[in-house]
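Hello support,

Our group uses your service weekly, and this is the first time we've seen a run hang past the timeout. The protein is Cadherin domain-containing protein. I'm not sure whether the cause is the sequence or the server load. Input pasted verbatim:
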Amino acid sequence: PTSGQLRLSLRLDYETKRQHQFWIVAADRGSPSQSARVPVTIRVADYNDCSPKFRLQTYNVSIAEQSRPGTFVAKVTAVDPDESSELTYSLESSFDAYQFRIDPEYGTIRYQPIQTSLGRTFRLAVLVTDSVHSDRAIVLVNLLPRPAGPPRCAEPLFHAKVLENSLPGSFLDQAQVRTIGGAELVYQSFSDKINRLLDIDRRTGRISTRVSLDREGPDPIRTLDFAVLASGSGGLHATCSVVISVLNENDNPPVFDPQPTEIVLAEDAPVGTVAFRLRATDLDDPNRPIDNYRLLNESPLFAVNTTSGLVTLKRSFASYTASMAVDRADLRLHQLTVSARDWEPPYHQTRLDLAVRFAPGPLPEFRLVCSGMASASDDLRLSENSPAGTRLVSCRAQINGSFTSAYQASLAFGESDVRLLIAGDNLTVVSSRPYDRERESAIRFALSARSAGTRPTLPTFRAFRLDILNQPDMPPAFETAEYNLEVSEAAPVGSTLLQARAVDPDGDFPLTYQLLPASGGGGGGGNDSGSASPLRIGQQSGLVTVAAPLDRDSPLATPRAYRLLATDSSGMTGEARLVISLV
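Update from on-call engineer: The timeout came from a worker crash unrelated to the input. Re-ran successfully.
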């Protein structure tokens, strides 16, 4: 304390604490005492006083018999607390060691056979040194029988059927792959949609449902077509095709097509006059027409044809009123309740209430003539993404065959999808927004019109179906944004690694696949046309295969990230990422 010399009181250890900071204070003996202080920082220099240590003292690995020279075996790693030390790896000399070589800098061990060895275990002693200290580890290398040929799916196509609305957990099928020697495989699907809907047991390949599947819901599912990848060590890969068919269950009632709220008939209408026609659709099978219509309330005037849905006059209004001792005006309004029933148990029935009013006749004939079409239900077509305001249909009003502007018209339904424009005797329906074919395949709307003149007429009703035509406006979409694969360095040339799948939302059109380095790389790399890439993709199939021997230390092994491209016939391209990890 009197000389100001600073000495060590304890031994410094770089690996424990690399820096010491404190203050030195100097004070005189006067009164009052005066002092000063100065900060001191001691930085400890590293000294090679610690031995390197392997992370494991024993490594147990396996490779296939008759593996080619240079096959990756293992990577041993040691840690030296001395930061400045450089480690060097080597194999202790022995007969077994002559069959292998080790990278002195990275500790990577590769098979370098000098003679054929079958069914045995090599014992390697690995040394690591920092030039002063050293450590030793044992690596046991087991030679395993190699499968005679690649694994194969037990079936060319696994096809299962499941009833819609089946409970989650319902068993569907089992993707089975045959291997020689019973090698263990891991089963998986890369499809985000499939993994959301189905559960694939990674160990057994058992496929079951995660959720109930619905054929008619907001996201209808009728068929699931996907691939299951079975992969294992030693370059074992097999891609199995699976198709799940969702069977229909009669779980939806029929839906009536739009009908006018009120039907008007002339009082002098003869027997057999068609009042209206019922049309209904079964959502469970839209292509099969409903053919079971009934009149639920007893009517003295009307009858319904069970098959066609035609509601006709079975007795004249005059004959009916003559037999009734009430005022004729009180008999002009009739309420009808009709039903439509589907064709499969458990049967579902839908009811519809309609009003029929008789008007004194004879009445002039009033109708809408629409773009030369005269059918009661008209089909229209429009390309998707057409701008709002696009003309859909034009009509003109007629009374007894002569065009007139004395009429009233309105949209009976479809107000959110279309707009009605009236100018004189011309009536035009235009789109109120662009339509997207991938969201809605058809739009329905209807017109209701009647004469506005002094002479009353029967109102008219026209229903339309607008089919939205597909346009190539969306790029193909891969089943997942990124594929991650662990691939054995020993995977043989020609072995399948992946079935890349993309879907064109615009339709089931052929796609062209490409595989390019993620860094941008030369055009067409990795395609069937050939390139220096160790991977290749089928331009039409999307099948990714090994095109050249895989070597972790070879420049051909990089990059290990690729761009998967799928291009449709219009030139629109979708993209996913493929990441390969060599093991």
